[in-house]
Amino acid sequence: MLNVMTNKEHDEARQGEAFAPFTDEVNPYKKHFYIESYGCAMNFADSEVVASILMENGFSATNNYEQADLIFINTCSIREKAEITVRKRLTEFRSIKKKKPGMLVGVLGCMAERLKAQFLEEEKLVDLVVGPDAYRTLPGLIEEAETGQKAVNVLLSRDETYADISPIRLNSNGVTAFVSIMRGCNNMCSFCVVPFTRGRERSRDAHSIVNECRTLFADGYREVTLLGQNVDSYYWVDEQKDERVTFAGLMEQVALISPLLRVRFSTSHPKDITDDVLHTIVKYDNICNYIHLPVQSGSSRVLQMMNRTYSREWYIAKVNRIRELIPDCGISTDMITGFCTETEEDHQQSLSLMEYCKYDLAYMYFYSERPGTLAARRFEDDVPLEIKKRRLQEMIDLHRIQSLHSMQRDVGKTFKVLVEGTSKKSADELFGRTDQNKVVVFPKGDLKVGEYVTVKITKCTAGTLLGSVN
Ligand code: SAM
Ligand code: SF4
Ligand code: F3S
Q: Fewer CB atoms near the end CB (10 Å): N or C, the chain?
């Protein structure tokens, strides 16, 4: 279910998702860990790496934190609201810990990296603080914490990619999986905390990525989403073998595993997506015609202050090129309202850009200043909160109309859909997604999860297509 995201679900509602238990029974000879993940898909993928490291070291997973000896919370710092949610959750865990003093609570991920020892020293909320590049040291840190010492490792690495670790898919539908292809980010978008919490960009060994996808396919998975903050800058070099793999090359290798394995990717930075990537999407039927291409603002002046390194016109030319080469391509975006100095005119430009691009999906946020970022150091956060929120609401209202139109355009058409699970609303219906990443609900019949079906769209809502199986 992790891939099926509406705007609301994107970061916020996906927060707090817990792993299913690996075993139903509590094994009295093992220590049990519980992990809750917040933030982007990369954080969810990291939790699967953490689970793998812990299980290799004799721990067992549980989805019931009351049974856990260790509670981990994999955190996000992207906006202030994300951090507030985590703090609230930590306070809840602290009260559980009072009743169960031997239990350890650990903070992982981006907030651990941003706040470092502050969690241990000032707030006394937790026993372990472990940054995104330090998960291999978790078993040793747990031992340290068990002796009553406060354990912390927030060192960022220039080369850690966890390439050799097979993630444990504890919360899986058995059909779709995330595969991390790189870590960190070198783009200093002025609003963004990620370069500080995740460190320098590095690409993972291409062979390990292809092998992981191959194993997933052999295990019955039918869709992989290749993940990175900026997938188009993926570049892996093996000097000894004189091998160089670009993102287009990597996608091709994954697509060649089997025509039955769907390939998705996220996120594309408009400045880096190449014609090569677009031609590769065209060449392989199993690479989905869907690109998440965040623009952030429709005003070239604001884009410059955001340090996005492209203008409105440049972005529009990129969208035109995508539509020219892949006419039925689904395109989605991220937008920020109320960035420093944003005027009504800038805001109107964001709205008109959205009208031009006719996004199928948009994730929209109001600007939240993050300490230490370029924007926080250089610019005043001068748009009042109520104006940021009003502009956001106007944007959401526009997008609601646009997404309904996007759905309505599909009524009467036929799509190949990968069956992902039972519909939330009815046990007699299944759901899956089109190539373009739209959710489709259809009657169950004799169909099974993991199969491809051809569905004729008969109706729609703003978020879902409804159809019958051909
Ligand atoms: N790497 C992706 C890119 O360049 O588009 C984005 C990754 S970021 C985790 C997801 C989205 O969060 C961004 O695209 C942006 O819209 C939003 N975001 C990041 N920092 C923000 C901030 N300080 N306030 C509000 N939204 C923010
Ligand atoms: Fe943040 Fe920009 Fe990197 Fe995306 S590309 S993670 S917005 S710095
Ligand atoms: Fe949040 Fe870190 Fe992802 S800040 S959005 S979890 S990279």
A: C
